[in-house]
Amino acid sequence: MNLKSFFYILIPTFLFSSMEIALKIAGGQFNPIELNFIRFLIGGLALLPFTIHYLKKNNVSLTKSDFGRIALTGFVIVVLSMTLYQLSIGMTTASVIAIMLSANPIFGLIIGFIFLREKLSRTNVLALILTLVGLLIIINPLHLSGAMGIMLGLLSSIIFGIYGVMSRVNGNKIGLNGLSMTCLAFLFGSGELGILMGLSHLPIAQRIPSGYSEFINIPFFKGISLQTLPLILYISVLVTGVAFGLYFVSMEKVGILQASLIFLVKPALAPVLSLIILGEAMKANTIVGIVVILLGSLVTLMGEKIAYRVMAIFRRNNPEAHQDVDELAKVKDELENGELAKRGRATEEAVRESIEKKRQSHELPSEN
């Protein structure tokens, strides 16, 4: 990994790890819903020039159904997941919420397995078990404190996992890359949240119990001042815009596995930053839980490499099994690169081109 690739990973890792801290600091000066609206609106606008460039470069035209998919994806990430996330930060320690959000890829695996019938390897299952065990250790059900914040944080992480699957599936259907899909989802989601914020000013909203005052007369930009502007720009442009943008760039530049290091390091770095900046002490169970979750992330990251190493050891120590292993490798290669596979890929490409031509013919006006 060269120096440039290293910074592609280092910068978003630090930004993501500082996210909960910055949001907790800002939470005392903003309505949590207002803060959520501002950061995703500005973050989406920060990514918009890159999205416009991508759409023009790849001649992507969006249909009504495409906008519907984007709007639904934005609702899930901004209105549901991140609103719960912002509320949870105000109810418990930032480090615990940071760790929970880092577990969202594991929940994404479960969702993909259930709804998309994606394969769940043994290493994925092991990583899932380790992550869930780590979360239980951190939550410590026998001595639960800040229960509501923890539950909201856990729910936010699960919904974030749903968003990850939705973003990938809808982005592929529409023809958007990860950065463009993220940008549009942020903008649509902040718009949807803005509509709900407007409804909070209606007389019917006054019937909401006083214990939930943050949902009544939600301001839009009330907390912004010269004093809070630097913090807002850091949260919106850097943490929300640049961090997500560089995350997707890192996947393209250095690969998905290496980019996964961002969320692999976050559970360990975020509590340390919380300790230094916010003075949030780390309990023994939190430290143990972090280690277990890191092991789960490491299994996810290194699972395939470990499998290949085990196979190599097996072959070295069992010469008589070479033939069987080699036969399996040949069959796998034939399935992936054989003549039949090539024909299948060629047919698939031809069908895609045909569909695209038909789509363009319907979208473009006739010369007659």
From TrEMBL:
It is found in: Endomembrane system. The keyword Nucleotide-binding does not apply. Residues 340-368 are annotated as: Disordered. It comes from the Bacteria. It is a multi-pass membrane protein. The chain crosses the membrane at residues 7-25, 37-55, 67-87, 93-116, 123-142, 148-166, 178-204, 224-249, 256-278, 284-303. Keywords: Membrane, Transmembrane, Transmembrane helix. This is EamA family transporter. It comes from Companilactobacillus alimentarius DSM 20249. The lineage of its organism: Bacteria, Bacillati, Bacillota, Bacilli, Lactobacillales.
